């Protein structure tokens, strides 16, 4: 019963979030700030993780296909498809749920506990919209760019690991990443990223906005934001994969 | 004028406001006193619409506020200013941007006009040279003053202060009290102050209301409060040794 009531509450909250802004310029300015805070500041971690994951995928593929009947370029192909289909969209989204989701929930939760949200409400500001909509817009715009960066850097990491350890030659790897390439996989990956970005920012915003009193509650809201976002990402990963790839 | 009529509010199974009726007079500093947990903050938050009420009426002049929807409330809220217990300044933006926030959101003033207004408000609360500072770089008293400047930025008709003196030393507390009183008379606002500080009551309370356990027990002027025969009020006022001593001295002088 509580789950149904929370889901209903979440959709009512989204109704408030997507009301007409009081002043477009203020929302635009806030969105630009959020793009830097939530998007640009995540580039570093996304690139580092992508390089290492690309490298690991290449090495694992190489050791699992260490058989003369498998052509070596399959290592490049395996690395490319793993990164595009699952890693750069879903795994990066799970990591961003931890980084961005906890950031959003603790920021909004702290504003709630320190009465800053009450102060905004007294001024006549639609607080849900002013605080959450820019975050949703920022992540929905910027996360696809993070995914594209992750794909490129992940494949480069795979190439670097493959060539330096000698499990695959540079020519084979490059041939592999071009072999049987399906451009729709990129579209599929970006669609998933947009949906996951929406889930991360809206679920975390909802949890932060409904924080109870006290510092302990901010921590709890932050944890709930990450856990619920991750579960929703995995659920929608399944749904979208069935819808888009079947 | 703000009128609260037969307001009831329950939180869980506790009756935090029990049939409270008060008239807060326009152009005056109205003070609500009571112990911690007596329902002062819930009453104030109910008046400004942050808490819903279970029954009763809240009137702003001739408008019944508790019946309005979000958009209609917005028009009245633009005429409100509020000073919160912890100041509630937006901590990611500077002092200047805090005071300018309402002007940015609700007016079409030019940047020069907004800056002029911000300077006027900050001058009024005696804050100089702190425009670019973040709230975290200010002392408690300065934060309260910046919060007052932010509250008066759009010339509000109603000012609400929740425990404006909490956490301040006695001298700074007197300065904040005086500031609230001066601003109230200068801008002819209806001001409601929640406090349990008797200094504030005697300094600036033009109308005083005492609540305890969610019920209103007494209301009157600050010069009447020491002569009241309301037992819960006397228990509250004369709880401390110094207050008891003063009372004994005053009664021995009068006899």
Walkthrough of the structure:
By secondary structure, chain A is an all-alpha fold. Chain A has one domain (24-245). Chain A is 85% helix and 0% strand. Chain A is built from 9 helices and no strands. Chain A has helices at 2-17, 24-39, 43-64, 73-113, 116-123, 127-165, 170-178, 184-209, 215-245. In chain A, α4 (73-113) runs antiparallel to α9 (215-245) and α8 (184-209) packs antiparallel against α9 (215-245). The longest helix of chain A is centred in the middle third of the chain and has 41 residues, at 73-113. The model of chain A has no long low-confidence stretch (mean pLDDT 94). Chain B is an alpha/beta fold. Chain B has 2 domains: 1-79 and 156-222, P-loop containing nucleotide triphosphate hydrolases (Rossmann fold, 3-Layer(aba) Sandwich); 87-155, no CATH class. Chain B has 9 helices and 10 strands. Chain B has helices at 40-48, 70-77, 95-106, 111-124, 140-151, 170-187, 198-204, 231-237, 241-254; strands spanning 2-11, 14-24, 29-33, 55-60, 63-64, 80-83, 158-162, 190-195, 207-212, 215-220. In chain B, the strands form 2 sheets. Chain B has a 6-stranded mixed beta sheet with strand order 6-7-8-3-9-10, with helices on both faces. A 4-stranded antiparallel beta sheet of chain B has the order 2-1-4-5, with helices on one face. In chain B, α3 packs across α4. Classes of the chains: A mainly alpha (246), B alpha/beta (255). Chains A and B meet through α5 of A and α2, β6 and α3 of B.
């Amino acid at each position: 019963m509580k789950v149904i009531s929370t889901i209903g509450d979440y959709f009512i909250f989204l109704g408030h979030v997507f009301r007409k802004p009081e002043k477009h310029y203020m929302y635009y300015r806030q969105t630009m700030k959020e793009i830097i805070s939530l998007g640009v500041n995540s580039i570093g971690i996304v690139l580092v993780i992508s390089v290492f994951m690309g490298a690991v995928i290449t090495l694992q593929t190489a050791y699992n296909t260490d058989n003369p009947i498998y052509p070596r370029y399959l290592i490049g192909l395996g690395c490319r498809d793993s990164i595009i289909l699952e890693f750069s969209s879903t795994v990066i989204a799970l990591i961003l749920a931890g980084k961005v989701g906890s950031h959003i929930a603790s920021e909004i939760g702290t504003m709630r506990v320190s009465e800053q949200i009450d102060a905004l409400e007294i001024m006549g500001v639609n607080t849900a919209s002013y605080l959450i909509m820019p975050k949703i817009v920022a992540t929905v715009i910027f996360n696809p760019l993070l995914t594209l960066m992750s794909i490129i850097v992940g494949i480069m990491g795979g190439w670097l690991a493959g060539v330096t350890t000698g499990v695959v030659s540079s020519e084979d790897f490059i041939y592999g990443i071009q072999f049987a390439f399906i451009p729709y996989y990129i579209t599929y990956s970006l669609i998933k990223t947009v949906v996951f970005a929406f889930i991360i920012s809206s679920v975390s915003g909802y949890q932060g906005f409904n924080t109870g009193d006290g510092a302990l509650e901010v921590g709890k809201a932050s944890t709930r934001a990450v856990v619920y976002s991750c579960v929703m990402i995995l659920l929608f990963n399944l749904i979208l994969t069935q819808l888009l790839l079947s | 004028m703000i009128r609260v009529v037969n307001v009831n509010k329950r939180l869980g199974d506790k009756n935090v406001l029990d049939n409270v009726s008060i008239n807060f007079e326009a152009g005056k500093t109205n003070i609500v006193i009571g112990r911690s947990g007596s329902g002062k903050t819930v009453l104030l938050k109910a008046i400004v619409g942050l808490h819903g009420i279970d029954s009763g009426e809240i009137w702003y002049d001739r408008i019944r506020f508790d019946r309005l929807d979000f958009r209609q409330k917005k028009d009245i809220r633009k005429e409100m200013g509020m000073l919160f217990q912890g100041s509630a300044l937006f901590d990611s933006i500077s002092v200047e941007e805090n005071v300018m926030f309402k002007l940015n959101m609700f007016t079409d003033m030019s940047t020069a006009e907004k800056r002029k207004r911000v300077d006027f408000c900050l001058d009024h609360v005696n804050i100089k040279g702190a425009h670019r500072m973040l709230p975290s770089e200010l002392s408690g008293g300065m934060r309260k003053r910046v919060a007052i400047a932010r509250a008066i930025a759009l010339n509000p008709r109603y000012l609400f202060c929740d425990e404006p003196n909490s956490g301040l030393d006695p001298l700074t507390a007197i300065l904040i009290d005086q500031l609230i009183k001066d601003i109230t008379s200068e801008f002819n606002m209806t001001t409601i102050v929640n406090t349990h500080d008797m200094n504030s009551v005697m300094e600036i309370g033009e109308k005083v209301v005492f609540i305890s356990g969610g019920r209103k027990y007494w209301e009157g002027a600050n010069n009447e409060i020491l002569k009241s025969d309301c037992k819960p009020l006397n228990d509250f006022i004369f709880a401390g040794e110094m207050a008891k001593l003063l009372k004994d001295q005053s009664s021995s002088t009068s006899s």
